[in-house]
Specification:
Layout lengths: L3 H20 L14 E5 L9 H8 L17 E5 L3 H7 L5 E4 L5 H5 L3 E5 L8 E3 L5 E2 L2 E3 L5 E2 L19 E10 L5 H8 L10 H5 L3 E6 L3 E2 L14 E2 L3 H6 L4 E3 L10 H13 L3 E3 L1 E2 L2 H5 L2 E5 L2 E9 L14 E2 L4 H14 L2 E7 L10 H12 L4 E4 L8 E4 L2 E4 L4 E3 L6 H4 E10 L2 E13 L3 E4 L2 H13 L8
Parallel strand pairs: 2-3, 2-4, 9-10, 9-23, 10-13, 11-12, 13-14, 17-19, 19-20, 20-22
Antiparallel strand pairs: 1-4, 1-5, 6-7, 7-8, 9-24, 15-18, 16-17, 21-22, 24-25, 25-26
Length: about 475
């Protein structure tokens, strides 16, 4: 007759063996070694990651509060995605897990106590994927948020969906780039042309695609002070800041590219083409400006669509002259629908009238939500001079403003704070967006922030965000 003691002992031995198999990749090249077990939290979670050891303690019931993981003193509710629930429950029959359909469960999306276990199929953009021992499936989290080469993701579950790095693409997206006014002497004083991006170029250059919203044409001579403080130019030498940062796609929806005349816009377009970059949201004429740009990455097609809402008219492209694509609802619907039919991923950027209010305006919401309804994957209001709120509308990511990136505004803390969005896609599906917070120094240099500074910015953004995820 089997005793209670021997049964429990055998169970502990079996659990230990199973957990050892889950926690550490084997040295072989079998499919199981590429079946990562992933851990997600609520999108607003302050957790920056979790260790494999602490994760085991959560499963064993030794840790029941986020306080033990570096978060708030609040209870943990453990969920397991339906796709792996039976396999994982067999490994940990005593773990207090709830079964869920992670991507579709709105209750889990709102639950700030949630800690969710899944494989890659259950990773959702409205949740926050936690690095485990500093590792994501796609790489290690390095200094100042740069992604370093993979060091061996520590959690796996035999039988879970496999991870194929060829099916993963990352897109880094920034807010306003306007290398003008006080930006010019700030860089010149340092004698280092790349001084502005020394802390961010590893983030942008390591992405599969990197995009920034450049709002100022390049020309010489362009010196500070400018004749008109609201009429912008950027010295030609600063174009190297874009190339050294690894930007592949340049958004041209801004309202300052024609400030010094349309011929400088044409010259800037030629510089972009010669550098092997793509551009969207602006162009040589209205047809070119409105054209969808398709960019390939690892066999996947990413589309970019952009418009300018408010002008002024001199900033808009004409039938025969360069500028930004003028926004109309009909044109937005037409282009986004076409892009969605032809691409795996669709980015839409709109230069909206709201540049400084953290609360999105009515028309701003209407246009960005309509883009989602037409098939946009990621939608951004690119005119914001401060970080603004987010929304997961119909499950799709909207940023109402990432803030200034390479611009000279230093007059308030909100104009100095911004975010880089690093979007991740797997098999053409949006799975995650990391928000990388920074503070602009010396009129020109965004420097990533950590700890309380980072949390203060993100809490401000979440406070002004919309939708059930943020309630």
């Amino acid at each position: 007759m089997t005793t209670w003691f021997s049964t429990m002992s055998a169970e502990r031995t079996a659990r230990s063996a199973i957990f050892s198999a889950i926690l550490f990749f084997c040295s072989c090249s079998s499919g199981a070694a590429n079946a990562p077990l992933l851990v997600q939290a609520h999108y607003t979670s302050p957790l920056q990651g979790i260790s494999a050891a602490r994760f085991e303690d959560v499963l064993r019931g030794k840790i029941t509060s986020f306080a033990k993981l570096g978060g708030p003193d609040s209870p943990i509710t453990l969920y397991c995605d339906r796709a792996i629930y039976k396999k994982f429950k067999a490994a940990y029959p005593g773990a207090p897990m709830r079964e869920t359909d992670t991507a579709a469960d709105s209750v889990v999306a709102r639950d700030r106590s949630a800690l969710i276990i899944s494989d890659i199929r259950g990773v959702a953009p409205h949740l926050k994927l936690l690095p485990v021992d500093g590792q994501y499936p796609w790489g290690a989290l390095g200094k100042d948020y740069a992604i370093d080469p993979p060091g061996g993701y520590p959690l796996r579950l035999p039988g879970a969906a496999s991870w194929d790095p060829v099916k993963h693409i990352s897109v880094v997206q920034t807010g306003v780039t306007a290398m003008t006014r006080a930006f010019i002497p700030a860089v010149d004083r340092r004698g280092d042309l790349l001084y502005p991006v020394r802390h961010t170029m590893d983030i942008s250059s390591r992405a599969d695609i990197a995009v920034t919203s450049n709002e100022v044409s390049f020309l010489d001579p362009c010196t500070y002070p400018l004749r008109d403080n609201l009429s912008f130019c950027s010295p030609t030498r600063f174009f190297r800041v874009l190339t050294a940062s690894g930007f592949d796609v340049i958004e041209l929806t801004g309202n300052h590219n024609n400030d010094f005349g349309r011929r400088h816009s044409l010259r800037t377009l030629e510089m972009i083409r010669k550098a092997g970059m793509s551009y969207f949201g602006g162009g040589e004429n209205s047809d070119d400006a409105e054209r969808i740009r398709f960019v390939k990455a690892k066999g996947y097609t990413v589309a970019f669509v952009g418009f300018n809402e408010i002008g002024p008219p001199a900033a808009w492209a004409t039938k025969n002259g360069p500028g930004a694509a003028r926004l109309t609802m009909a044109l937005l619907e037409e282009k986004v629908k076409e892009a969605a039919a032809k691409a795996d991923v669709v980015f839409v950027s709109i230069q909206c009238g709201n540049e400084n209010s953290p609360v999105p305006w009515k028309d701003q919401r209407r246009y960005l939500r309509r883009a989602v309804e037409m098939g946009a994957t990621v939608t951004v209001s690119s005119s914001a001079h401060r970080a603004m709120g987010l929304e997961f509308y119909r499950g799709r990511f909207i940023s109402y403003g990432l803030g200034n990136f390479l611009f000279d505004q230093m007059h308030t803390i909100n104009h100095r704070r911004g975010m880089i969005a690093r979007h991740h896609f797997y098999e053409g599906r949006h799975i995650q967006t990391e928000l990388i917070p920074y503070l602009i120094h010396d009129h020109c240099r965004p420097v990533p922030v950590h700890g309380h500074e980072a949390r203060g910015l993100l809490d401000y953004v979440f406070q002004h965000s919309l939708g059930e995820v943020f309630r």
